[in-house]
Design a protein that fits this description.
The chain is mainly β. It contains one helix and six strands, in the order H-E-E-E-E-E-E. It has a four-stranded antiparallel β-sheet with strand order 1-4-5-6, with no helix packed on it. The relative contact order is 0.21.
């Protein structure tokens, strides 16, 4: 089909390709609401007792190899390595019941998490030209 596509005036990409991608992402995540349901009870918000947030740093490096097997059909494989370090933090403020007013019981916590490992995937891309649809 290559010769026919070229005869019609289409420009075709190279049949094989390799690309390298590096991505770095650092962000703060604000949690606006936390809801909990216990022992089949309805889910209720606990955000007036709990304030949560998180920070995350992600490094990802990928290699992608692709091949055009038809003028409109591309297949690809990708593989790489990902590393993620996050820290979730919270502030808890619990009221103390009783007849005598007392300040709430308050404490802070941090939960560090990390993951790393190899990633991979495969896929198919279809291509077209809207100029040829007239």
């Amino acid at each position: 089909m290559k010769d026919e596509a070229l005869a019609r005036g289409y420009e075709l990409p190279l049949p094989f390709g390799v690309s390298v991608v590096y991505n770095y992402l650092a962000r703060d995540i604000k949690v606006s609401d936390v809801r909990i349901g216990v022992n089949g009870e309805p889910v209720q918000s606990v955000s007036h007792f709990l304030d949560l947030g998180s920070t995350s740093k992600v490094n990802a490096g990928l290699i992608k190899m692709d091949a055009w097997i038809l003028p409109f059909l591309n297949i690809y494989l990708l593989g790489g390595y990902i590393e993620n370090e996050s820290t979730s933090s919270g502030h808890v403020s619990l009221p103390r019941p009783g007849p005598i007013p007392r300040p709430p019981l308050e404490f802070d916590f941090k939960v560090p998490t990390s993951l790393d490992g190899f990633v991979g995937g495969r896929g198919v891309s279809l291509a077209g030209d809207i100029r040829s649809c007239s």
